[in-house]
Design goal:
The complex is a heterodimer of chains A (837) and B (276). Chain A is α/β, with parallel strands linked by helices and 837 residues long. Chain A has four domains: 90 residues, N-terminal domain of TfIIb; 218 residues, Rossmann fold; 230 residues, Dimethylsulfoxide Reductase, domain 2, CATH 3.40.228; 126 residues, Barwin-like endoglucanases (Beta Barrel). Chain A is 30% helix and 17% strand. Chain A has 26 helices and 33 strands. In chain A, the strands form nine sheets. In chain A, strands 5-4-20-19-18-6-7 form a seven-stranded mixed beta sheet, sandwiched between helices. A six-stranded mixed beta sheet of chain A has the order 28-32-27-33-29-30. Chain A has a five-stranded parallel beta sheet with strand order 11-9-8-14-15. In chain A, strand 4 and strand 5 form a beta hairpin. Chain B has two domains: 67 residues; 140 residues, no CATH class. By secondary structure, chain B is mainly alpha-helical. Chain B is built from six helices and two strands. The chains are: A alpha/beta (837), B mainly alpha (276). At the A-B interface, helix 1, strand 1, strand 2, strand 3 and helix 7 of A face helix 3 and helix 6 of B.
């Protein structure tokens, strides 16, 4: 640490001195030349060019200006022309250029030989990957990322489903966004938020559902709070289990116990009905009611809550889209959630619940609800997403500027690459699914492959895919090879000992990893492919508000690092050369053929020719054809070049302009809404232009604290670090501000255990234990019974301890709930595996 | 705190005035005695602090939160972010008075100032890190000192160079986290990043002409933050009494970061809002 600080200061001093020498020289010459002034030196650094790019980190989608000098990024500034951030950034964004320059960038392909990774040439690396994929067949899985660019995702998707007839393609967005997707699908019939960030400029009430935007989406939070600082009246209601920097700015804090959100949202509905304060007109015109099972199949009259829960337990849920129920039945079910009952279930005082309900009852208010991982990483994630849409629909706080629900994403292309390109085991591009024959035919048509090429059976979802990798082949583990791109599952999967680290012992399993730095994932890799990142390559992202953003390559990647997209396409070409039949289309042409303007095929799979044409543009404009079916029309590549992102559907008007859409399903703002209908949910599940309001009962978390492990473990991010910290931990400013993981406890829980600030303590769950320093009254303060540990620290892999329980519909794991105990090192262990026997 | 014998003119009627005096005197006396006893109690005969350090099986990380000190030792305690500040009263007063008396910049002080600036930011234009401890949970306390700027002794809390944003810690993080152990392992390696350096002086049309501004002015709209009377001498203007900086000092066209993509925003479908 000392060494590092000295080095930094030396560097800083040298940097300052360089600037100083320049300034002294020019000052001197100006002063001397009293008669004939020489042409003055140009100010600042004349060799710096500035270009636009979206930030590399979260799903907010800020634009930065990247300052480049001598083929290196030297500075970053907020982009004043960007609608999202209007010139401001957060501390990660300001330092995003530095993530390229860690000392240990991977610069050479490596293969594992006798247990050691040894450097090899690219040609050999591509050969190893292609032969392994060829040999694995349907035991091969491709695991990409919500940080993969749209063309990267599209190339991987087309290779897997259109070429290899293999649906085992997943992306890490399964771990962060899947429940939001199932929520949107089951409520509106189509994915992605209908609202946009403009709402943050108009709302007067901000409701945060288990969300800490002051640290996780700072730009969006300050977009609202800066209005407050300028004198506007904005009420912030924070529903959460932790007193955070966001809570500090809130007018009301509703202290919620885990899964209390389910009861709270139902309680709002109960109050709106009881007080007859719901929006009758909106509900009648635009809403249907739905539940896992329609009790009228068995019961003559509407049944009560407990009977219904028992009935569904017996019959099972009827899939993601459930069954229609009557409004009368809905009223009867939701009447269970009185403020008093909800206080019992959620821990939030009944008086605060009444206040929250009366906020929604007030038609004059403009309410924005924000949520992200708190609601999505939830074993009832689909349910709570439905319920928050419910309260907005029911109260009519929907579809007006400043008035509506807004789901946030955690990754820069979770929407663009994963949700829109459909890089998930069940999906095809543009909101299609492999199960539907018509959808498969569309894709087979666009890709010009023979009918029947696409496999109708969904592949394995993320947790299942890694479980199969880590299960011995003779015990049914039928995934033997995974290619990981742009993500770090070795640190971010739940229960990593079971779902990732168990691979170490299985010698017949093979892991290919495209990475920029050594990680917990490359530690177990058999083949490591050094990747170019961010402005070292062309790219396209898509943010939380349907905004598609393009950037150009600005600097050369280090050593032999190469674009992820090139890696995929080079392997595809090698498979073609090896004679894989799937790499030919139905006319016998190469599946990924790209022609130049003269109609000649470009050999872009050779790295030296990769930038002879713009591969991103070719792939993106091909992908664009898929986007019209579900009215997710993305703009052509050349339009995206001109702007700092465009929000789809982007409509081409008669005069040749491309216009973006801010509010979906709203007449006037969305061209697909029929005149006179006001609001029209034109992808409705029930084909009647109505949204579905769901009854979803409260349920308890998959693992609850007990006598042995008496606390609940919540994991998450901190302001300074992004995800597993591979990038941000290599930025000195961010690393020094937040150098290592910690365990955050309520002061009273700490006192009960004799734990002081700074003590190294033992954190134990049923999956293992970890030693961490306690930080009490530090960054945040959890409620009693709650414990928080961030997951950025490679040296403190908290996901070794988390639970791999998943939502039944979205298959997304819950990283916010499992039983844990925290104890002093001189106390006995809270738990031993023997306890389970 | 109650003051002994203090008279409250609103208490009691004329005939009962003497009762109020006696009662207030007694109450005040008791309060004063109690306060002095309170002070006295915390000082042990040996003059040593009367607390014992919390022993915890040797697993306490060093360099964590300082231990509390007694009242008697507080004067010399030296804890917290202000530990290095001069605490003698005459020097703690704001001395930002050199409005007409400032000295022109000299090379040495400029060098020192620029070196210090470079230490606190990743590149020229990056938000500076915070060189002192911060309240992890409360951003708004920053404005107490950095709202108008403050100079106490030799320590300067610069006025913000930009308009007030609500969430200070969104951009400005601690230069070092004093509560947590440092990073270990490969991630602790130094970076190879070399940031944009400090700009030279601004271009002048001829000797004696006012220089143009050699840096971007985005997030640096308030010139007095770095060049005003509270500034370090190396960057301080020679003429702080002139308030309208941009009247003479032009912006540099070379530093217009809107280039080369200065296109308009994309057109949007007409929102419902504008039809109302």
């Amino acid at each position: 640490m000392q060494m590092e600080r000295r080095d930094f200061m030396k560097l800083a001093a040298m940097t300052a001195a360089t600037g100083l020498a320049g300034s002294m020289a020019s000052r001197g010459s100006t002063a001397l030349a009293s008669t004939q002034p020489p042409l003055p030196d140009r100010p600042d650094i004349p060799g710096v060019t500035w270009e636009k790019a979206p930030c590399r980190f979260c799903g907010t989608g800020c634009h930065v200006q990247v300052g480049v000098q001598d083929d290196k990024v030297v500075a970053i500034a907020g982009d004043r022309q960007a609608d999202v951030n209007k010139g401001l950034l957060c501390v990660k964004g300001y330092h995003v250029g530095m993530i390229l320059y860690g000392q240990d960038r991977l610069t050479k392909p490596m293969a594992r030989r006798d247990g050691e990774l040894v450097e090899i040439e690219w040609d050999e690396a591509i050969d190893i990957a292609a032969k392994r994929i060829m040999q694995s067949g349907d035991k091969f899985g491709f695991y990409i990322s919500g940080q993969s660019t749209v063309p990267e995702g599209y190339a991987a998707q087309k290779l897997m489903k259109g070429g290899l007839s293999n649906n085992h393609i997943e992306a890490n967005a399964r771990l962060c966004m899947a429940s939001a997707v199932t929520g949107f699908l089951s409520t509106y019939g189509v994915d992605e938020p209908a609202s946009c960030y403009d709402d943050l400029d108009h709302c007067d009430t901000l409701i945060l559902w288990g969300n800490n935007p002051a640290e996780m989406h700072p730009i969006l939070f300050s977009r609202v709070m800066d209005r407050q600082a300028r004198g506007e009246k904005i009420t912030v209601i924070d529903i959460g289990s932790r007193h955070t920097r966001t809570t500090e700015r809130a007018d009301h804090f509703l202290p919620m116990q885990p899964h209390g959100d389910l009861a709270i949202a139902n309680c709002i509905a109960q109050q709106l009905i009881e007080q007859d304060a719901y929006d009758h007109d909106f509900v009648e015109k635009h809403c249907n009611f739905r539940a896992d099972r329609d009790p009228s199949a068995k019961f003559d009259a509407p049944i009560d809550h407990d009977t219904y829960v028992a009935y569904v337990k017996e019959e099972g849920a009827s899939g993601l889209f459930g069954q229609a129920i009557s409004f009368e039945q809905y009223k009867k079910l939701v009447s269970y959630y009185t403020p008093e009952k909800t206080e019992e279930l959620s821990g939030v005082p009944a008086s605060q619940l009444r206040m929250l309900a009366s906020t929604f009852a007030d038609k004059s208010k403009k309410i924005v609800s924000l949520w992200c991982m708190g609601m999505n990483q939830h074993t009832a994630g689909t349910a709570i997403n439905n319920l928050v849409h419910n309260v907005h629909l029911m109260s009519g706080h929907w579809g007006k500027p400043g008035d509506g629900p807004q789901s946030l994403t955690g990754q820069p292309a979770a929407c663009g690459t994963v949700r829109e390109v459909g890089t998930l085991a069940h999906a095809l591009p543009g909101g299609r699914i492999v199960k539907k024959e018509a959808h498969r035919e569309h894709a087979e048509g666009f890709w010009n492959v023979p009918k029947g090429r696409i496999n109708p059976k969904p592949g394995y979802h993320t947790v299942k895919m890694f479980e199969m990798l880590c299960t011995p082949t003779d015990q049914g583990g039928d995934i033997d090879t995974i290619w990981v791109q742009v993500t770090n599952p070795g640190q971010t999967l739940p229960n990593t000992k079971k779902l990732f680290k168990a691979k170490a012992k299985l010698k017949d399993k093979f892991l290919i990893v495209s990475e920029i730095y050594p990680t917990a994932t490359t530690a177990l890799a058999d083949l490591v492919l050094p990747a170019a990142m961010w402005v070292e390559k062309n790219g396209i992202y898509g943010n939380s508000e349907r905004r598609t953003q393009q950037w150009f390559k600005m600097v050369t990647p280090p050593g032999e690092a190469r674009d992820d997209c090139w890696q995929t396409l080079a392997v595809a070409r090698r498979l073609y050369e090896l004679g894989h039949p799937g790499l030919k289309d139905k006319d016998g042409e190469y599946l990924f053929r790209i022609n130049d303007d003269a109609g000649n095929e470009v050999p872009y799979w050779e790295w030296e020719h990769y930038y002879d044409i713009n591969v991103d543009k070719a792939l993106f404009d091909e992908y664009r054809q898929f986007t019209f079916l579900k009215h997710k029309n993305v703009a052509p590549y050349d339009e995206l070049v001109k702007h700092r992102g465009m929000r789809w559907p982007v409509i081409e008007t008669k005069d040749g302009q491309f216009k973006e859409t801010r509010w979906r399903f709203v007449e006037g703002a969305d061209i697909y809404v029929e005149k006179g209908s006001g609001i029209q949910f034109y992808h409705s599940v029930t084909k009647d232009n109505k949204a579905q309001m769901w009854f979803r009962p409260h349920q308890w978390p998959a693992e609850m604290p007990d006598d042995t492990l008496s606390l609940n473990l919540v994991t998450g991010r901190v302001l300074e670090h992004w995800h597993s910290g591979t990038m941000t931990m290599r930025v000195p400013q961010l690393r020094r501000a937040m150098p290592s993981a910690y365990v955050e406890m309520n002061p009273e829980d700490a006192r009960d255990r004799g734990i002081s600030n700074g003590d190294i303590v033992r954190v134990t769950t049923r999956r293992g234990e970890l030693k961490l320093p306690a930080w009490i009254n530090g960054r945040a303060k959890p409620l009693r019974g709650q414990v928080f540990v961030p997951f950025f620290d490679e040296n403190a892999p908290i996901n070794d301890l988390t639970l791999d329980a998943i939502d039944p519909f979205s298959k997304q794991p819950d990283y916010k709930k499992c039983a844990v105990e925290v104890s002093r090192l001189d106390q006995p262990h809270a738990y031993s595996p023997e306890d389970d026997k | 705190m109650s003051q002994p014998g203090e008279q409250n003119p609103g208490t009691g009627t004329a005939s009962h005035g003497w009762v109020a005096h006696v009662v207030l005197g007694v109450v005040g006396g008791i309060a004063l005695t109690g306060m002095l006893l309170g002070f006295y109690d915390s000082v042990t005969p040996s003059g040593q602090p009367d607390y014992t350090t919390h022993q915890n099986a040797g697993n306490t990380v060093n360099q964590t939160v300082p231990l509390a000190v007694t009242y008697s030792n507080m004067k010399d305690a030296g804890f917290g972010p202000n530990a290095s500040w001069e605490t003698a009263w005459p020097t703690t007063q704001d001395d930002s008075t050199s409005f007409y008396g400032s000295t022109p910049t000299d090379t040495l002080s400029r060098e020192a100032t620029l070196a210090q600036r470079a230490q606190r930011r990743a590149f020229n234009g990056a938000p500076p890190v915070v060189p002192h401890a911060i309240d992890q949970q409360n951003a708004s306390s920053c404005l107490v000192c950095h709202g108008d700027g403050l100079k106490v002794g030799v320590v300067v809390a610069p006025k913000m160079s930009h308009e007030t944003y609500a969430n200070c810690t969104q951009c400005h993080v601690e230069s070092i986290n004093r509560a947590l152990p440092p990073t270990t392992g490969p991630r602790a390696a130094a970076t190879l990043f070399q940031g944009l350096s400090t700009p030279g002086p601004g271009e002048r049309a001829w000797p004696g002409a006012p220089p143009i501004i050699p840096h971007t002015t985005w997030m640096r709209e308030n010139c007095t933050s770095c060049h005003g009377t509270l500034a370090d001498q190396g960057l301080m203007t020679s003429h702080p009494w002139r308030g309208n900086c941009l009247q003479c000092h032009g912006l540099s066209a070379d530093l217009d970061q809107r280039q080369p993509f200065s296109t308009d925003r994309p057109p949007v479908m007409i929102p419902q809002e504008s039809r109302e």
